[in-house]
Design brief:
The model has no long low-confidence stretch (mean pLDDT 94). It is built from seven helices and 14 strands. Helix 1 packs antiparallel against helix 2, helix 4 crosses helix 7 and helix 5 runs parallel beside helix 6. By secondary structure, the protein is α+β, with helices and mostly antiparallel strands. The chain is globular and about 50 Å long. The strands form three sheets. Strands 3-4-5-6-7-8-9 form a seven-stranded mixed sheet, with helices on both faces. Strand 6 and strand 7 form a beta hairpin.
Length: 259
């Protein structure tokens, strides 16, 4: 099944790469910066059609058309274009995020950026890979050695939990913090050891489902801010290699005290 999924992702990626530098039809969702294009919908429908044929009777938890959290024997959790705002502006940090849950357990994960041809993938119990090569979380053990990643919510101007305090706190204690604009890619690069850790508020299942399995299979840890295993109902997520994850949790506790 892996090869068929990769072929489907490759074809879907061609739709994205052929349209990233063209004019798009743009709609607004929750805010003026929460965008969706006709390409998001086209890619989503393409994936749903092909994956349904590949795995009959499977269901979908997807950003644009099937966004209610559900349980199913075979459930695809996907974002057809993670980083839509980047896509609209022609910035190549975009990806397809796809995870398969079977009987409630994540078994396959794929994060594919067709613009740079990076395919991150993981299968439960079989490790994680980037373009066919094994990947692992970083080995850094001190925050000052680290490059972290994060993002900000669409309602940043009005949301008190807009992540700014956390960003400032970490940015003073690490080598740098990046926010490429795609949580799925942030997590994939954390699995690959490019980023040492990742945190964010208010993400959706399709943003993180693939990244969670990638990081775990690459030797990392994913929890909520309280250190409990992350669930789709949580409002916050933190991930990294075991040492940095533990240090990030300690810093998060310090931030909470000051809020």
């Amino acid at each position: 099944m892996r090869n068929q999924i990769v072929n489907i992702l490759t074809e879907a990626g061609k739709i994205i790469s052929s349209r990233i530098h063209t004019l798009k039809i743009i709609d607004h969702k929750s805010t003026e910066v929460d965008l969706v294009t006709e390409v998001d919908r086209e890619v989503e429908l393409f994936l749903m059609e092909k994956l349904s044929a590949l795995l009959p009777n499977s269901e979908f938890l997807s950003e644009e058309t099937a966004s209610e959290i559900k349980e199913a024997d075979k459930l695809w959790v996907m974002d057809p274009i993670d980083g839509t705002l980047n896509f609209v502006h022609g910035f190549p940090m975009v990806c397809i995020s796809l995870a398969l849950h079977e009987d409630g357990v994540p078994t396959h994960a794929y994060v594919y950026n067709p613009m740079i041809n990076y395919l991150f993938e993981a299968q439960r119990g079989k490790g994680a890979k980037l373009n066919g090569l094994d990947i692992h979380v970083s080995t850094h053990t001190k925050l000052i050695e680290c490059l972290l990643s994060t993002g900000f919510p669409y309602d940043y101007p009005t949301n008190k939990e807009n992540n700014l305090n956390y960003f400032d706190h970490f940015n003073r204690r690490v080598q740098g913090v990046r926010r490429p604009g795609s949580a799925a890619l942030d997590m994939a690069f954390t699995a690959a050891g490019t980023f040492d850790g990742f945190w964010e508020w208010h993400l959706k299942p399709w943003d993180v489902a693939a990244g969670i399995l990638l990081i775990k299979e690459a030797g990392g840890i994913v929890t909520n801010f309280d250190g409990h295993p992350y669930t789709f109902q949580d409002d916050h997520i933190v991930a990294g290699n075991p040492a940095i994850h533990a240090l990030m949790l300690k810093e998060i506790e310090k931030i909470k005290i000051t809020l």
